[in-house]
Amino acid sequence: MVFSQNFPKISNAIGLKFNPDKESNFFRSLVTDAMKYREQQNIIRPDMIHLLMEAKKGKLNHAKTEKDTAGFATVNESVEWKKSDRTWSENEIVAQCFLFLLAGFDTVSTSLSFTAYEICANSEVQEKLHEEIKTVNEDLQGDRINYETLNKMKYLDMVISESLRKYPPAVVAERECNKDITLDLFEGLPYEFKKKHGLWIPIYSLHRDPKYFPNPEKFDPERFSDENKSSINPNAYIPFGVGPRNCVGSRFALMELKTLIYYLVLNFSLEVTEQTQIPLQLGKTFGTLTKVGSFIWEFFVFSEGPEMERYESYPKPCFHR
């Protein structure tokens, strides 16, 4: 994977691929056959496949809302990709389906683990978050949490946004120049980017740069409060990428994360143990951010009475990456 990203022409010349042909052909036929069957049978379902079919025809309309309320970390689509007449190729559609399958499991589970760790290690954050969640749960009067209510929970969004800043799902993003361009970089010195040049955007480094985020090693959800988030450089906070090649599932991923954290903090108190790694040691990996060793903490369930009863202790890893 690393070799293919650094040397795409050589990889294509020697036939180096991310997946073997058998697996790639199976997944491609899985998507294309489903789309063909729906077209032949005139089947319409409110799901991702239908949206991709509309995109292939150039009929996908971008939701026209005055303000995106899904969360601070959501991606703002470029003007080009908001155009309803833009058609998607079969390769783009299959790639998006593969992205949902691959990124929908790995990155969400990783982000959940890192977020739960920071909630566990910062008791004041956990207490404030629990109060917000408990208030919302009481207002729901027994109903399940829904998308609209999740998006109104400001402190939950602040916690998730700060977790994605400190632990972005992808360490770097890669792009390819589609035309020659010269930019003034490094104290006004011009730098020329050539067409077909590969670029790496260091997301992790940007998120931990004190120039953009003071005291970057501190987990501080208040960075994303209504009073402070306007001072954040939007191009320095890109947990889901930026531009037309951003993560298409950013809102879906945020919904998953918020729902899981909502029910976790509602029902349990997370406590550190002697085996909990503080500070966290990150693994030297490429691609998805990981840690050295395992996540270890204790769960306590909130009981009916004034005291919390011990639910279960995990002397072994309860979250393992």
From TrEMBL:
Membrane topology: Peripheral membrane protein
Organism: Phlebotomus papatasi
GO molecular function: heme binding; iron ion binding; monooxygenase activity; oxidoreductase activity, acting on paired donors, with incorporation or reduction of molecular oxygen
CDD domains linked: CYP6-like
Cofactor(s) annotated in UniProt: heme
GO cellular component, one term: endoplasmic reticulum membrane
UniProt-listed SUPFAM superfamilies: Cytochrome P450
Protein name: Cytochrome P450
Signal peptide (UniProt feature, chain positions): none
UniProt lineage: Eukaryota, Metazoa, Ecdysozoa, Arthropoda, Hexapoda
Cellular compartments annotated: Endoplasmic reticulum membrane; Microsome membrane
Record keywords: Endoplasmic reticulum, Heme, Iron, Membrane, Metal-binding, Microsome, Monooxygenase, Oxidoreductase
UniProt family annotation: Belongs to the cytochrome P450 family.
